[in-house]
Predict the 3D structure of the following.
Amino acid sequence: MKKAFPNGNSKGLRSLHFQVFGVLSLLALSTSACTVVSHRVDVVPIDRRDGVAIETPLKVHLTDGSTGLYTEGANISGGTLRGKGIFYDIALQPFPTNPVLTPVSLDTIAAMETFRDRVNRGKTAALLPVSMIGSAVAVGAGVGRAVTTGTTLDKFPTAHNAEGALVQIETDKGILMGESIDVRDDGIIVLAPGMSGKRLGIDPRSQKLRLFQYDTILALEFEKISSPGHLAKQRSPKPDELARLKTLSRFPQGLSPVLLQKLLRIHGQTALAPGLQ
């Protein structure tokens, strides 16, 4: 009787078979794993150099407290900002002339920032082992699909409205959620209705401007923002954290005494309310 395997090495052939299968499986796994990508949105301050073309969404903050959104970007030339902007006054009421097409003098602009999608390479790499486990199941089922994690520009609220980022603050008195108005060296000013915590309300007078000193904050987290978008343990932000968090507030340039008084009057206040009592 002839042997099924002329060389008599059936174990060797089976071993080779499994090696080939293993290589093909690893290729399938690595291909699928590469589709898992972690995203984030970077907030980038803009300087005032002439000849700068911003091709990503742009937010501008005027010295009178108004805020403008240039969803298609803009150009800086001849000491002016040129583009198609939608503007809101300090009370977040839209300008009657929207969209604003006339050039805006740089002298009237206190701050500008743009928003850009980025791939978080560190987190993407960290997800690969998990992806490979999931891919093994997909290979066995004959199914594969791309997986995206994190925040992309289209899901980043601060880039699409005149408000500051939504922030959640925890103190020993409770948890509050509201809009980041001004991030200062000594604390953060938040516009919030109190303990209920909701986005900008229908009636601005139903909310209060509250000052939270950093030494009262147990935990602080900004919506859709990764590190350093959070603070903890009643400490002041480090310089790089402070700069980052300022760009997420409605007034990244800071509230001047004049603007603060205007904003307080809008919300029926004569002074800032304390954080939580």
Q: What stands out?
A: The two ends are 93 Å apart (CA to CA). Residues 1-8, 26-33, 130-144, 195-205 have pLDDT under 50 and may be disordered.
